Amino acid sequence: MLRLENISFEVKDEESKEIIHDISLTVPDDKLVVITGPNGGGKSTLAKLIAGIEKPTSGKIFLDDEDITDLSITERAKRGIGFAFQQPVRFKGIQVFDLIQLAKGEKISIGDACAYLSAVGLCARDYINREVNASLSGGELKRIEIATVLAKASRLSIFDEPEAGIDLWSFQNLIEVFEGMRKNIHGSSIMIISHQERILNIADDIIVLKDGSLAAHGSRDEILPTLMGTSSAVMECKMVNSVLGGGEQ
Amino acid sequence: MIELNEIQKRILREVADLHKVSVGAFNIRSDGQSLGRTSTANIEIVPKDAGSGLDIYIKPGTKNESVHIPVVLTKSGYTEVVYNDFHIGEGADVVIVAGCGIDNCGNLDSRHDGIHRFYVGKGAKVKYVEKHYGSGDGKGKRILNPETEVYMEEDSQAELEMVQIKGVDDTVRTTKAELGANASLVVRERLMTHGEQKAVSKYVIDLNGEGSSADVVSRSVARDDSYQKFDAVINGNTACSGHTECDAIIMDRGRILAVPGLEANSVDAALVHEAAIGKIAGDQIIKLMTLGLTESEAEEQIINGFLK
Ligand SMILES: Nc1ncnc2c1ncn2[C@@H]1O[C@H](COP(=O)(O)OP(=O)(O)OP(=O)(O)O)[C@@H](O)[C@H]1O
Ligand SMILES: [Mg+2]
């Protein structure tokens, strides 16, 4: 279980700007939670705060009642936070197999690694020895990123826009991967940042972030009807605004 | 059976992947002496006068054979210059593994200057693997100055893989090549320097034959207070293509100088140089930390991969 208590985050460029305002929420065990909301709403920033990549200006973060606010990225990873980046990182020389093995945290067989690749719809044989470098396409890289988080098997797995760059045919496969994870999450939870209705459809809970604030948080059945028919971010933004009585963006 | 002591065995493991004495043609040189030498039906190894090196003759058409010529230095203060000449017959296809390891526990400088000349015959194909390694905790420096010269006839191919990852204090490596028509040269260099080490890597490649091509890629890491210079010259004298690339990571107070040198002496020469020097990207470290690695473990993995 993850709990955020009054989390705020400010960046200081020329002038300081608060990107996340006073967010409190709980992600219970055995749930798949989807975070949605307009571009620039603060979703990725919130995920980075949870993973420890950014430190909140104020507020506290708890994992299973342990205060992890001051823990490093590494310590949080070891306690069970996994994070698939919105923009995955490339590494010259490191092979797909190496990365999956590092994610797993122990020696694995080629077969084990292939299973994770197959789960994200990659023909494992063709990829296992590829370098995680610029030669991979955006969609391939994105799937490998997801595979590393699958391999890590976390208490809380966060996926930042996993659907981005994934083709239409593989998208269904990806949904099945998340549904499969959802079935087997006993004692852990999944957080997916997404704009896709089909991902919202498999959520237990939905969180809407807008302008760095929690605009809505509830069960899928409560929230989804208020967002329906909003495939584009602008539409989505308008819908959120009208439903919640906010001003024009 | 050749008797090897533990230091010799360890160094041979590092530089030649040789656990035992191999079956192909080989010569093992330790502190100026030949510890063992074997020729095969197709590959003849002939010592030059007074232990100054070897002539290695590979018969035309020899296929799938290998030559191993590792060198070991274990005596502090020992200095040598060795000339090895490889005469690779037309149409041969061979792998040559050379390597030098220096173990210097004493306070005098130990030094091996190996001059390797390759005469690659028409249509022949050679893969040359060279590994350098230093160990020992004496104050004496471990110095290696390899010179490689490659003379390539029509349609020949050469691939040079040169690795120096650990323990060599001072190195100036010079590689010269002259390419005939349609000859192709590929060089992959991997270099890591630590402490106060200095490494200079120089290339002068003449693309003389029409349709010849050269591709030189150096990946290197400079740590601590070490210094590296990558100086790659390609002269395109006809319709040809050349590419040099220096891809380097600097850490701590390491310094790297990359000097591009492309000279097109023909309107049909296509030459490209790329150089990128910088520290490890922060997001690479962060990604590995989210998998549970510490910052220094992450750096280690990134460098290992980079130099693989
Ligand atoms: N380090 C930073 N410095 C300044 N501004 C930042 C920084 N990080 C994020 N921001 C800003 O904070 C806002 C939230 O960014 P964030 O990436 O969290 O949005 P998001 O909800 O993930 O958007 P998207 O749907 O486009 O991925 C944006 O306006 C962004 O420009
Ligand atoms: Mg985002």
Description of the structure:
The complex is a heterodimer of chains A (249) and B (308). Chain A is α/β, with parallel strands linked by helices and 249 residues long. Helices cover 38% and strands 25% of the residues of chain A. Chain A contains 10 helices and 10 strands. In chain A, the strands form 2 sheets. A 6-stranded mixed sheet of chain A has the order 6-7-8-3-9-10, with helices on both faces. In chain A, α3 (96-104) runs parallel beside α6 and α4 crosses α6 (138-152). The longest helix of chain A has 16 residues, at 168-183. The two termini of chain A are 33 Å apart. The mean pLDDT of chain A is 89. By secondary structure, chain B is mainly β. Chain B has one domain (6-282). Chain B has 3 helices and 20 strands. In chain B, β3 (43-47) and β4 form a beta hairpin. In chain B, α2 (282-290) packs across α3. The A-B interface holds A 51, 53, 72-74, 77-78, 81-83, 85, 88-89, 91-95, 98, 102-103, 105, 131, 148, 152 and B 219, 247, 281, 283-284, 286-295, 301-302, 304-308. Bound molecules: adenosine-5'-triphosphate (ATP) and magnesium ion. Magnesium ion binds next to α1 of chain A.
